[in-house]
Amino acid sequence: MATKHSRAAARLMISPAVLLLLGWMIVPLAMTLYFSFLRYNLLMPGMEEWTGFLNYQYFLTDPAFIASLINTLLLVGGVLIITIIGGILLALLLDQPFFGQGIVRILVIAPFFVMPTVSALVWKNMFLNPVNGLFAHVAHFFGLPAYDFLAQAPLASIIGIVAWQWLPFATLILLTALQSLDQEQLEAAEMDGASPVSRFFHIMLPHLARAITVVVLIQTIFLLSIFAEILVTTNGGPGVASTNLTYLIYVQSLLQFDVGGGSAGGVVAIILANIVAIFLMRMIGKNLEA
Amino acid sequence: MGKITLEKVQKKFGDVEVIPPLDLTINDGEFVVFVGPSGCGKSTLLRLIAGLEDVSGGQIRIDGEDATGMPPAKRGLAMVFQSYALYPHMSVRKNIAFPMRMAGLSEAEQKKRIDAAAHALNLTDYLDRKPGQLSGGQRQRVAIGRAIVREPSAFLFDEPLSNLDAALRVNMRLEISELHQTLKTTMVYVTHDQVEAMTMADKIVVLRAGHIEQVGSPLDLYRHPDNRFVAGFIGSPKMNFIEGPRAHAEQAHALGIRPEHIDLSQTPVQGAIEGRVGVSEHLGSDTFAHVHSEEVGQINVRVAGDIDVHAGDTVWLSPQPQNLHRFDEAGLALR
To answer: What tens digit of pLDDT does each residue of B169-215 get?
Structure first.
């Protein structure tokens, strides 16, 4: 890319791809924006009319909105905390040389390959079910009454299921980061009198900062839009106890047939996601710089 | 203060014996260099002393105290690594302060020692930079600074100069020697470069395959090598070895003669080795001539730079008899 000529040629050649991607993004976004200003109900086709900000007003003043917003943040935050802490601990464990290391590593990665719907159903029916679930059997073994996880603690149960799915991802990224740590640095710290705990906090954790940032950013993107796990386990209930923003938008547009209100919710979700992104980049973005 | 004694120290990795039982004494204040070809176990030996590897047998004593099972931090030794092993996320100041923080020293004492070390090592202007912003030589000095502030009973250096360019290496060699003269602390230094060993050491330990071949002062090793390995390893360019009738005439299996101990003549000399110059390297002050002779094969000679020898010249070489080394069939020196 040395000369002016070659730079111009390069721009010309990547422009089709850029334009395609831009259109791919802009068209649905524009349509959502347009629908969000319409009174658009699927039960009354052909009756669309311009309503201004009325859809936004209804969506934002819906009591379920604040509840789902808090649920979304709790879901993202809870899963992040569990996967980061659990991931670091698992990575430290898997970094040790032991017999059967290769097989154990594959087993640890396995949950990531199970589809969200499938894993949520397996959790719902085989573990959390108050009659047939494994946890219910364990409780009975100790003479305790079975705990109905999805009814009593729906959001916590979903956080647990999602964290189980994402733990391997965090572990994998953190393990590779841990393996790239220069052993001589650890030895130097050992010579300098650092105990294993201070070696972890002063040497390993700063080295992992960048990997943790990557895990947080990538997971946040996916966790903001968790849907399948909620749909197959609690359906957002009881009440709105496990409804997140994504699920609320689904309820609005496909269960209440209010496409206009759902679109307004979608636009609100985009704005909120960007606010989260700005906060994240402010907090941890500097870790990504070289 | 810093006397290190190894008694029958042995190291095995699985079934492979890297270091057979070995005895060595490093006296207080001595600059000892472990030298040997790659894979001779010199780094492993240093790591055994540091406590980064467990010994498979024998005892390590530091100042008379048994340190064999002691964790590295308790041994009172400081190590400078080949890769410097600086902590990349900490500033130079924090890097140097790290061992003191771990030891729980007061802030005032930390600051005093950091300033002293930074002043001694010319690092004052760089204290707030990260290691990534420093040059190789500066990083090396930070690593040394981190070792100094602990006021250890001995310093361990693991090939500290091998990542530096040639000019910087000469400088750092001097700086480390000066540091030793000011601190008068025991230093153990590992290198594969015999020039570093010759220039810096009070005592050189020549290792081969985990065995100590010879221990002695640099000039001692140069003048009186115990065997052919040491004779060939110490000194640059390498010693020439002559076998055959000439060696038998001296009641030896092989004769060793250093390139600087051969007189070169461009006119026939009685009893001299006749040969033809293959390549001659003119360094200005000296000329190294690689001479092929029918009688004994290749011989390297070092002559003063003002003597003109060129490729293809026929020359006559006479080894100086007082500087001949004689070796028996096992390669041991005959004296």
So the answer is: 888 899 899 989 988 999 999 998 888 899 999 999 999 988 899 99
**Assigned domain for A149 exists:** yes
Q: Is A15 near chain B, with CB under 8 Å?
A: no
Taking only the tens place, the pLDDT of each residue in A14-47 is 999 999 999 999 999 999 999 999 888 888 888 8
- d(Cα B242, Cα B212) in Å, to the nearest integer? 25
ipTM above 0.90, yes or no: no
Structure-block tokens of residue B249 = 């005439």
User: If contacts are CB pairs under 8 Å, which of residues 126-185 in chain A contact chain B?
Assistant: 182, 184-185
Decide if B83 and A190 are in contact by the 8 Å CB cutoff.
Answer: no
Smallest Cβ distance to B89: which of A193, A194, A206? A206
DSSP B268-298: --TTPEEEEEEEEEE-SSEEEEEEEETTTEE
Is A188 within 8 Å of B81 when comparing Cβ atoms?
Answer: yes
The confidence band for A84, taking pLDDT boundaries of 50, 70 and 90, is: very high
CATH of domain B4-232: 3.40.50.300
Nearest Cα residue in chain B from A290: B132
Closest by Cβ to A191, choosing from B72, B87, B90: B72
Give the residue range(s) of CATH 3.40.50.300 domains in chain B. 4-232
Structural fold of domain B239-334: OB fold (Dihydrolipoamide Acetyltransferase, E2P) (2.40.50)
Min distance A266 CA to chain B CA atoms (Å):
41
Per CB-CB distance under 8 Å, the chain A contacts of B139 are none
Tell me the pairing of strands B273-282 and B286-293.
Answer: antiparallel
Task: Report yes or no: A206 at the B interface, CB cutoff 8 Å.
Answer: yes
Question: Do residue B85 and residue A202 have CB atoms under 8 angstroms apart?
Answer: no
A206 contacts in chain B (CB < 8 Å) = 87, 89-90
Do the chains contact at A185 and B102, CB–CB below 8 Å? no
Residue in chain B nearest A205 by alpha carbon: B89
pLDDT of residue B1: 67
Residues of chain B contacting A198 with CB distance shorter than 8 Å: 102
Which residue of A185, A192, A206 is in closest CB contact with B102?
A192
Residue B34 pLDDT exceeds 90: yes
pTM: 0.80
